[in-house]
Task: inverse folding
């Protein structure tokens, strides 16, 4: 999965990503959001086995961009790498949420102690 998109939009996204990573180097640089699912689609050809069966397998990555859901097909050979990068993203996001929750609880405890 070592492909690198070209063009002005890709360049802009890479610049923004690297600026954020310089500021927060602990963010996993290749982490992905979302969920990966195996779906089955029918191709529409009347003589194909999928017309009467389960359909052709297809990996689909679902994620949010600007509060809008995106659904993108993923090549079969990328599926394992995408899943690994999603796990990395999920673990990091969970760790950040735990730190935020601990900070909020510590703030509440500090406020309570200040009253007494």
Result:
């Amino acid at each position: 999965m070592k492909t690198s998109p070209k063009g002005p939009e890709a360049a802009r996204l890479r610049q923004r990503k690297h600026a954020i990573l310089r500021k927060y180097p602990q963010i996993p640089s290749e982490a992905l959001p979302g969920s990966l699912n195996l779906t089955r689609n029918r191709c529409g050809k009347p003589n194909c086995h999928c017309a009467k069966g389960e359909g052709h397998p297809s990996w689909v990555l679902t994620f949010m961009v600007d509060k809008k859901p995106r659904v993108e097909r993923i090549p079969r050979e990328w599926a394992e790498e995408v899943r690994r990068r999603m796990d990395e993203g999920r673990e990091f996001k969970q760790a950040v949420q735990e730190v935020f929750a601990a900070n909020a609880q510590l703030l509440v405890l500090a406020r309570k102690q200040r009253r007494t």
